[in-house]
């Protein structure tokens, strides 16, 4: 079952990668589009680099706002990745060469996130802005390269130790979003290969699970004790 769902998840990602419907795959995805993407759109400017770009799902929203869109990842999961390498040692990237950057759901997967944060600081120009997202609640994924989860205090410590000035840390979702993501993955993974069932499952998932869980978190979880994750905006002085 686990292998079946993993294959189904990969197929869903491929089918939705450039679709506006991608945001409704689960409350986790919805939170990134509702909270993180608007911050990237606000701060992306000049020379921009997408760190840990994966299949570049946000490229279409960023390219028209920047002079240069470059990308960096540990492997080429799609065509056109500018740099292939380790975010903990980006020696191929010159210091002070980018005005803005995004690094989304990456630093839980590197053994030394403090070193990675220092490298991001190095490649940004003075005044450059980083939009960073990290998980707090998450199941194990991309094993064995799954090392850390972050609190809001941990995010600040990580960035400030690298030299950044943290402008804000935003909570993304909560316990309902975490549970909703597991439900979405199971429901859509089982239904996706069957056309009519797939459409019915997508409707239920979009309106009841994705939107419902995200709305419940905003309505109920004001303390932030069960944050799904955090998105930080930080600037290099």
Could you explain how this protein is built, in words?
- The protein is α/β, with parallel strands linked by helices and 237 residues long.
- The protein has one domain: Rossmann fold, CATH 3.40.50.
- The protein has helices at 2-16, 27-43, 59-62, 113-123, 152-162, 175-191, 195-220; strands spanning 47-51, 68-73, 83-84, 98-104, 124-135, 165-172, 229-235.
- Strands 3-2-1-4-5-7-6 form a seven-stranded mixed β-sheet, with helices on both faces.
- α3 (59-62) links the parallel β1 (47-51) and β2 (68-73).
- The relative contact order is 0.17.
Write the layout of secondary structure elements.
Blueprint: H1 2-16, H2 27-43, E1 47-51, H3 59-62, E2 68-73, E3 83-84, E4 98-104, H4 113-123, E5 124-135, H5 152-162, E6 165-172, H6 175-191, H7 195-220, E7 229-235
Parallel strand pairs: 1-2, 1-4, 2-3, 4-5
Antiparallel strand pairs: 5-7, 6-7
Helix pairs in contact: 1-6, 2-7, 4-5, 6-7
Write out key terms for the chains shown.
7 helices; alpha/beta; seven-stranded mixed beta sheet; Rossmann fold
The value of Rg in angstroms is: 18 Å
CATH topology: Rossmann fold
Widest sheet: strand ordering: 3-2-1-4-5-7-6
Oligomer: single chain
Give, in order, the helices and strands: HHEHEEEHEHEHHE
Mean pLDDT: 96
How would the global form be characterised?
globular
Number of strands: 7
Count of individual domains: 1
- Give the N-terminus to C-terminus distance in angstroms: 49 Å
Going by CATH, the architecture would be 3-Layer(aba) Sandwich
From the helix content, strand content and strand pairing, which structural class follows? alpha/beta
Question: Fraction of residues in helices?
Answer: 40-55%
Helix count, DSSP H or I runs of 4 or more residues: 7
Poorly predicted parts: none
Instruction: Profile the largest sheet.
Output: 7 strands, mixed
At the first level of CATH, the class is Alpha Beta
What is the beta-strand fraction?
15-25%
């Amino acid at each position: 079952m686990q292998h079946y769902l993993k294959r189904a998840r990969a197929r869903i990602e491929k089918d939705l990668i450039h679709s506006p419907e991608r945001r409704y795959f689960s409350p986790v995805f919805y939170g990134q589009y509702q909270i993180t993407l608007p911050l990237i759109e606000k701060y992306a400017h000049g020379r921009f680099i997408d760190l840990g770009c994966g299949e570049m799902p946000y490229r279409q929203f960023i390219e028209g706002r920047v002079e240069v869109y470059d990308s960096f990842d540990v492997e080429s999961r799609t065509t056109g990745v500018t740099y292939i390498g380790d975010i903990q040692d980006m020696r191929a990237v010159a210091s002070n060469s980018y005005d803005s950057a995004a690094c989304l759901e990456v630093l839980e997967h590197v053994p030394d996130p403090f070193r990675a944060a220092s490298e991001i600081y190095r490649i940004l120009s003075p005044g450059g802005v980083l939009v960073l997202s990290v998980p707090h609640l998450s199941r194990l994924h991309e094993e064995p390269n799954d090392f850390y989860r972050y609190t809001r205090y941990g995010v600040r410590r990580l960035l400030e130790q690298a030299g950044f000035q943290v402008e804000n840390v935003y909570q993304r979702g909560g316990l309902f979003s975490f549970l909703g993501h597991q439900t979405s993955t199971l429901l859509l993974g089982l239904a996706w290969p069957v056309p009519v069932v797939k459409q019915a499952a997508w409707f239920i998932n979009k309106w009841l699970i994705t939107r419902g869980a995200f709305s419940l978190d905003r309505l109920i979880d004001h303390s932030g004790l069960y944050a799904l994750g955090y998105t930080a905006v930080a600037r290099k002085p």
